[in-house]
């Protein structure tokens, strides 16, 4: 694809579904533009989760400067508001040397926070956070959704019914503040002092799904199960409530066979890719690979 000429101070967003090939494409663009990459993959923030998150290799990291990769531990607290503030501050510095800066990743909410802004929300106390996490871990997403329906029916009707992280956050805030989570969401878009160009990578559906299946197999060959075993003692942490880890936790717990766990990872990843595509089709320009 021939990109247009971007004006100075442009944030070039390169996103797309998991396993579509974002990392290699973004690095090639970064080399051509001689610019760094800001990661917008919230799972790659955590340094302990390298295999299961398709963490960039040492060779890939050497080809282009990356920010927001492996900067956190799974034990660290982090949220979208903190990410927005840190990225905006970094961009002000990067734009002094680079007319175009690349943001690459598949976490739509984090990209939206940088492009449009996000309201600062209160952090729950330890007791509230533990209660909500236990509700989800012990009773599943249906119990979490029921709690949200009681506390904030308006937001419950809007949120993706499979997005446990957003529901956890909504329940936490609602309980902490004794007010519906939706009452804190003003939906006021922040004015940015830079240009934004948003693209999403895509492939024919059968090709994308085959790439997803193959990548899961490669992760297993590279030691994903061993990585998950080292993280098993911390499985209650929110960072680990994600595809690739929770399925193998089920295997370690004796709830399914290893073969079933691997198949579940593939199925859940394909479903996640579909949800990503639905998001990106709203206001991103497609690049078909």
Plain-language structure description:
- This protein has helices at 22-33, 58-63, 80-94, 108-116, 126-151, 153-158, 164-177, 205-221, 224-231, 246-252, 258-280, and strands at 10-15, 37-39, 66-67, 100-104, 195-202, 285-288.
- The mean pLDDT is 93.
- Helix 8 crosses helix 11 and helix 10 runs antiparallel to helix 11 (258-280).
- The protein starts with 9 loop residues before the first strand and ends with a strand.
- The chain is built from eleven helices and six strands.
- Helix content is 49%, strand content 10%.
- The chain has a six-stranded parallel beta sheet with strand order 3-2-4-1-5-6, sandwiched between helices.
- The protein is of the alpha/beta class and 289 residues long.
Radius of gyration: 19 Å
Q: Could you tell me how far the N terminus lies from the C terminus, measured between alpha carbons in angstroms? A: 9 Å
Query: Taking all residues together, what is the mean pLDDT?
Result: 93
Helix/strand-derived category reads alpha/beta
Main sheet: which strands, in order across? 3-2-4-1-5-6
Largest sheet: 6 strands, parallel
- Low-pLDDT stretches are none
- Identify the overall geometry: globular
- The total strand number stands at 6
Strand fraction band? 5-15%
Order of helices and strands: EHEHEHEHHHHEHHHHE
Helix content: 40-55%
The helix tally amounts to 11
């Amino acid at each position: 694809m021939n990109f247009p000429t971007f004006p100075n101070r442009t944030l070039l967003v390169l996103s797309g579904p998991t396993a579509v090939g974002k990392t290699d494409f973004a690095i090639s663009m970064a080399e051509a533009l001689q610019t760094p990459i800001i990661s917008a993959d919230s799972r790659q923030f955590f340094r302990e989760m390298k295999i299961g998150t398709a963490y960039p290799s040492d060779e890939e990291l050497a080809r282009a400067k990356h920010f927001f990769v492996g900067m956190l531990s799974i034990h660290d607290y982090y949220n979208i508001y903190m990410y927005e503030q840190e990225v905006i501050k970094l961009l002000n510095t990067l734009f002094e040397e680079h007319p175009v800066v690349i943001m690459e990743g598949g976490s739509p909410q984090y990209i939206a926070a940088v492009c449009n802004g996000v309201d600062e929300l209160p952090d729950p106390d330890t007791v509230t956070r533990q209660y909500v996490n236990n509700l989800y871990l012990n009773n599943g997403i249906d119990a979490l959704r029921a709690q949200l329906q009681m506390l904030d029916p308006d937001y419950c009707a809007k949120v993706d019914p499979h997005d446990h992280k957003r529901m956890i956050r909504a329940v936490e805030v609602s309980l902490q503040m004794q007010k519906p989570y939706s009452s804190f969401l003003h939906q006021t878009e922040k004015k940015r002092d830079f240009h934004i160009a948003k693209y999403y990578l895509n492939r024919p559906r059968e090709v994308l799904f085959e790439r997803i299946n193959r990548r899961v197999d490669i992760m297993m060959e590279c030691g994903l199960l061993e990585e998950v075993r080292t993280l098993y003692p911390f499985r209650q942490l929110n960072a680990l409530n994600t595809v690739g880890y929770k399925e193998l936790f089920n295997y370690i717990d004796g709830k399914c066979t290893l073969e079933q766990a691997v198949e579940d990872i593939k199925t859940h990843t394909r479903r996640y890719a579909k949800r990503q595509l639905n998001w990106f089709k709203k206001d991103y320009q497609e690049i078909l690979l």
